[in-house]
Amino acid sequence: MARRPLPRILSNGGDRIARSRELARAAAGGATDVLHPLITITRGLRRLAAAGRRTWADTPKDRRGPLLFLVASVILVVALVPYGPLLAAITLMAASAWKGRENRPTAPPGPDPAQTKRLGALYEALVPYFSAAEDPAPLYAHGGDFTRAFSSCEFDDTGRVSRLVIRYPAYFTDGEPASRGRIEQLLRAKSGRDREYHFAWDEEGNELTVTALPPLPTDIAAQRFVTAPGETVLGFTDPTGVQRTLPLTHGEERRDVPPVLWRTGPRCAEPHLLIAGTPGSGTTTLVRSIALQALQHGDVLIVEGGGTGEYAFLTGREGVLAVESGLAGAAASLEWATHETERRLIAANRARQAGHPPPDDVRRPLWILLDRPTALGPLAAADGRADPQALLQVPLRHGRAANVTVVVAEQVDALDGLSDAVLQHTRARVALGPAAPGELETVLGAPPHTTPVKDVPPGRGYARLGTGPVHRLQVPATPDPYDETAGEQHRQAVLALLPRRSEPIAPSAPIEPSAPITPGAPIDCGKPTGRSAPVESVPTEALAMEG
């Protein structure tokens, strides 16, 4: 039976449908091109309206009335100005067109030939450390593809690596400090030794993130920091190291910088601080900065073993009990500090037994600042006296309960001269100046996660509070205001922080450095400023203290 041909309308119906779809798409595309300005303006109006609703929701209720009045006033002024509504409409359309434009993200460009060559050289340098002969599918091999090993990379304006994520095989001994140190040393050498790098080891994911750190700001001058009582700013660090920032002023500029805060007081974890550094590294600058902050809420006793007069500008100021640089004065001041610590413990213990809060003079912080105390040891030995550091045992051991804080600054090459009590009770540490990783680990108790550079500015170093992490540190500029070689702006900043001068000390109550103290006799525990409060003497070993 012969087949009959299909009707014409059915044989070419599919072609007509396809052509109609193409015409519809073309018409829709043409309409989109024609109406694109209107679509952009509509999108912009919608975004402006959403921004206005968010602003209204974020505005406190007590400020919404003035805000409505301001908007109504603007609308009234625009309505009264000639051609005001027309200009307002044109401005609104322009703002909507700008707000409604499409922001298409651009794909990040890949590395250029020079950067590719640098990454290839870095990959080849890592092959001997991240490869094994028995690996059937090595991730690192000579002549291999570095894109498999480097997950992501970023470069700075000079074409050097600023951030690199490196994958390494699971059999690499990333838990051994020696293995890590070899990789970090190699990456530092291949990426540039004049920069500091932060190494973040992800042992679970077998990844190493290398980040080139920007230099810390060195232009921050001494100022009133926004801190609570008991908080001391040691310096400033990276934003990723801490979870807090401080508002600072630099001339007319205001900015937020992450600080390294050291907390002191009866409930602090690390009540005493040790500062170590090389000559000219900024240890004295940090002690001056701590002294200016301590004078806001407490009293300060300064012992300068070097005898250079770096703290002479504090003499006679309110809150400064004494500034001693000689052996006799230092010994007398530290002996008074020992008795004052005992007096505070006795007063606090009696107040607790009676159910009363501690007296105000006990709650007021007392700071004992010593700069280069080891220089006084040979002088005391030559004079037949005991080392003044022996007088620090009571303030160091019982200072937290008595609200007494001890800060010791010493040079790195003289740390062996510090007493065991100082080294044992000063678990908050700061290391300033250029130093090898081994020296930093000796002072801080743990190696830093960054590579130190050879040339560092004054006040640059690392800080570690107890068993916490190691932070990069930049001490605020706090020069001697009487030093004419320092910057005028920084000198004026220090002078503005000085408390006013106190009244002259009464000549009837001087400190007698040579007067011996008989055990068991009444002790005059008055402050070196002449104010005395005699209390009965109690041996330190018999004190029953809490905390």
Can you walk through the features of this model?
- With 547 residues, this protein is an alpha/beta fold.
- The protein has 15 helices and 18 strands.
- It has an 8-stranded mixed sheet with strand order 11-10-12-13-9-14-15-16, with helices on both faces. The chain has a 4-stranded antiparallel sheet with strand order 1-2-4-3, with helices on one face.
- β6 (246-250) and β7 (253-257) form a beta hairpin.
- The radius of gyration is 35 Å and the shape is extended.
Strand order of the largest sheet: 11-10-12-13-9-14-15-16
Oligomer: single chain
Q: What is the helical fraction, as a range of percent?
A: 25-40%
Low-confidence stretches: 505-527, 529-547
Shape: extended
Mean pLDDT: 83
Quantity of strands, as a count: 18
Cα separation of the termini: 112 Å
Structural class: alpha/beta
The total count of helices amounts to: 15
- Describe the largest sheet: 8 strands, mixed
Radius of gyration: 35 Å
Give the percentage of residues in beta strands. Answer: 15-25%
Key traits:
547 residues; alpha/beta; 8-stranded mixed sheet; 4-stranded antiparallel sheet; 15 helices; extended; disordered C terminus
Give the topology, please.
Layout: H1 8-11, H2 13-34, H3 36-58, H4 61-80, H5 84-99, H6 113-126, E1 150-155, E2 161-167, H7 177-191, E3 196-202, E4 207-213, E5 231-236, E6 246-250, E7 253-257, E8 259-263, E9 273-277, H8 283-294, E10 299-304, E11 320-324, H9 327-353, H10 360-363, E12 366-371, H11 376-382, H12 393-402, E13 404-411, H13 420-425, E14 428-432, H14 437-444, E15 460-465, E16 471-474, H15 488-497, E17 523-524, E18 534-535
Helix pairs in contact: 3-5, 6-7, 9-12
